[in-house]
Each structure stands twice: as structure tokens, then as C-alpha cells.
Amino acid sequence: MIAELKTLIAVVRYGGFSAAGNHIGLTQSAVSSQIQRLEESLGLALFNRTRRSAVLNEAGARVLARAEEIVALVGKLGDENIGDELVGTLRIGAIASVQSTLLPRALAALRKESPRLLVNIAPGVSMKLMDQLDSGEIDAAIMIRSPFGILPEMIWQRLMHEPFKLLVHKDTKGRDWRALLESQPFLRYERTSFGGRLVTRFLRENSLVVQESIELDEISGLMNLVSEGLGVALVPMVEAYLPVPSGVRAVSLGEKTFHREIGILRKGMSARRSVVQSLERCLSEALRPQQP
User: Is 23:6 a contact under the CB 8 Å cutoff?
Assistant: First the structure.
């Protein structure tokens, strides 16, 4: 029955029998047959069917919740601790800015504790990582906090706040960030990204009118564009990209400073909860000042 439960989860996750089949390697008819066997076994109709669609009904929703728990428990069978050591595979999604700094420090500590733990790191932008976590492709996501809020079944642990500053070319005169923003070509942090949405909100809340020039979802790339004299940019001060390039000057936003919150997101009910909690602890410890 485990196969049928996994297929049920896939049908709901991917929005239909055909889409589920494409993701799990079955034909639409095979998916339909598995769902029918599951319904016959349970003595319940899980979907309200029409000629064109099948919609999960109330009984199906109850079964789905239990199916997710059962599949998670089965997945945990091969991932138990051996003594105090964690084993199995930990799948981490991570934005680019933590992959060369915070994450390696945390993983160094985690591997000392559990050398047989395998780690797979999936790079990506925050929105993609959140989707991958929701679909079960990864166990945790180190990302920018979503401006849309956190789903009830997810747990967010804040790790750090990164202040935004206005970057200008080193030869640009003045420290009035408002005047500089409105008088120079604006290099925009890509507006659909989580960080870019923070910039858009800041501009709107402060009634700023900018001269749109170039849009890019890459912090180091924005810094290099400023260094080449192509304009100014609102960019978070990220450890991986500091100090700023020699051709760039960072201007404080003073009392208007806003921040990008970085944290780790995981599911509350997860078969890999103990492993992810160990990662959370190592990440927090990696942020502490190092003792001389």
C-alpha cells in the first residue's frame, strides 16, 4: 500500500493524475489504477470525479494527511541514529550567499559529530527552494525569509539580518542617499526575488522615483556594475561579498536602513527532523564570534 499512498501524495502535489505520472514515472492509467486500488482497500472515494477532473474530497484530505505521516515514517526507517551519530542523507537547499561562508562552517562541525552523514546541497533562489521543500525534494532550505509569510506546517529559524546599503561608484560625490538614488541610473535587485521585493517596498514606502537602468538577481554582479560606473544599487551587506570592490563606496541609509533576514526553513513534521535540528544548531554556532 505504500506505493499507492505515495501516488496519492503525488496526485495532490502535482495537480492531477497525468502530472503525477510524469513526475513519478507512471502512465496516467497506472496512476488511476493505483488510486482505485487504494480507494477499494480503504472503502472510501478519495476524489470527486467529473469527465474532466478529479478533485480531492473531504475523506481524501483526511487520508492524505495520514498518508504523508506514514510515508515519512517509512522513509525514516533507514535513517535512524547509530548511537549518538546521525546517518543517512541530509538534503539541503541553500542560496548562493551562504554556500561559501556560513554553510561550510556549519557543515564542518556537523561532520565532526556525524562523519557517516551524507550531505547533498542543492543551490537555488529562495522561492525555488521553498517549493522544493514543500514538495519533499529537500529536507531544509537556507534562504531569505519569504515576504508572503511562512506556511503553518513550516518552521522558520532566523539566523541573521543583513542591512541594505546604497552602493555608488567611489568617485561619486555626496552622502545623501536619497539624492544619489534619484539622480543616478538605478541598478535594480531583480524585483521578483525575495530580496528584490524588499527593495521595491523600500522605494515605494519612501516615495522614491528612480531612473531604471539594469535589473539583475546577483549581488556580486550588482557590485561589479556599480564598480564600472553604471549606476547605483541597493544591496544587502553579505559576508560572502565583503569587502565591497575597491571601485565601490557604501552609503548608509541611516534610520531608513532595512534588512534581509536569512534563516533555515523546515517542515514541522519531517522524517529528518532530528538531523535538520542538528544542522540548525551548527548554523547558529557558526554565527558566533570565533574565540582567539
Answer: no
